[in-house]
Amino acid sequence: MDSEEFREWGKKMVDFVADMWDGIPQRTPLPDKSCPSMTELELAVLDWLVIALGLPDHFRNAHPGPGCGIIQSTASDATLIAFYAARAKAVEEIKKNSTGRLQSLQADVGQKFKDFLGKTPFSGKKGDVEQEPQSDVYLHPFHDPAVFNQLVAYCSDQAHSSVEKAAMLAGVRLRKLRSEIDAAYGNYSVTAATLEAAIKEDRSRGLTPFILIATMGTTNTCAVDPIAELAPICNREKIWVHVDAAYAGGFLLCPEFRSMGAGMELVDSFNYNAHKTMMVNFDCSPLWIKDGKSAVKYFNVDPVYLKHEHQATTADYRHLQVALGRRFRSLKIWFVMRTLGIERIQKTLRDACAHAEVFSRLITASNLFELFVPRNLGLVCFRLKNESNDVNEELCNAINNDRRIHLVPSKVGDVYFLRLAVCSQLTAEENVRFAFEVITEMAQRILDKISLVGLEATKA
């Protein structure tokens, strides 16, 4: 075994051991009673990450405030939980305001009746108010579907498809805000003016905006929504702000990338996939909530068979997830941090950006290709110059069918483009140069074929 194989298998063994412990069978759904270390380690590990990522201190479990962290399986699950929490908060607020207005109206009308008739019709005595019929059907006050129809969620038109799915499952409207090329990254993000206009329009239609999903590192182009500009608007309008940083969030481990997170102190929840950028194997997706106590209140179900003697003194993660049981995901993070350390993870992230920059410069210097948007982090988006979407799609298919490298394409608006993402800790500069050679070779074949067809057509 050479040194390169030794390093590769050393990293794999960390994953193997962590996954073995994580997947021990017969894991019961009450971790604090059956496995206290599961809860305690998750509390500690997530607090370490708050510090390592430079997140606001109020997200720490150990902070005296109501903030908390929990590891979800994926960013899709985290987005769904954020949707449900924000929806419940909005329903609570709407019903509270409606009750207040009704009581005020009753008091006003009642006083007028009393002045006229000498008694009030809203005295609270039996017969004065219509009684609710007895029923076995239970309606949770925080999840009243009668209110859902007036709720509307916001996200960028570049947001991940999981946001649309979350809106479907939550039974609410979703407005995709038009993104524009920004000055900060030369990429597609949502502007404050667009958000303001959407809120004004929807409120005029009788709708209640309740959540904004801001993206840090979109799947298409690694765009970053300006949180520092959008969050103050949402705070003013009482709209929950969730930051989906599935890919780019891990790069906050490096201080030089933290400008992406400006305004993070104003958001209500934040999530990223540790299994994407932290050398942790799938699945492991930390989620932090600014007011975790309220979120727990919205999801709390407490039958007798789930009660235990420690529930008043420790975190019970079942209230912040769909499933009852859960895996020991914090152990994966613990193994990686203890075995490799933050500095090793930071080096991997910086290397990914450096290798992507090498590829970006090769694209820029080429006569065949052009960048679709400037490189951001480890993602480079490019396409053949002056060629149609069909030709670019043909190139992508040819590259993937060749099987030496693999690219995933995307499309923004009417433009089809290719994406090279540096994802592996084993990627070296020679690998991205090799990828460029393969891409150039396949592109030249296609262009030569097009030229030949054109020449034959001219002769004919």
From TrEMBL:
Alphabetical UniProt keywords = Catecholamine biosynthesis, Decarboxylase, Lyase, Pyridoxal phosphate
What do the Gene Ontology cellular component annotations say? cytoplasm
Note one Pfam family from the annotation: Pyridoxal_deC
N6-(pyridoxal phosphate)lysine occurs at which residues? K276
**Coiled-coil ranges (or none):** none
Give the domain of life.
Answer: Eukaryota
Q: Could you give the subunit structure recorded for this chain?
A: Homodimer.
In its UniProt entry, what is this protein called?
Aromatic-L-amino-acid decarboxylase
Protein's organism:
Mesorhabditis spiculigera
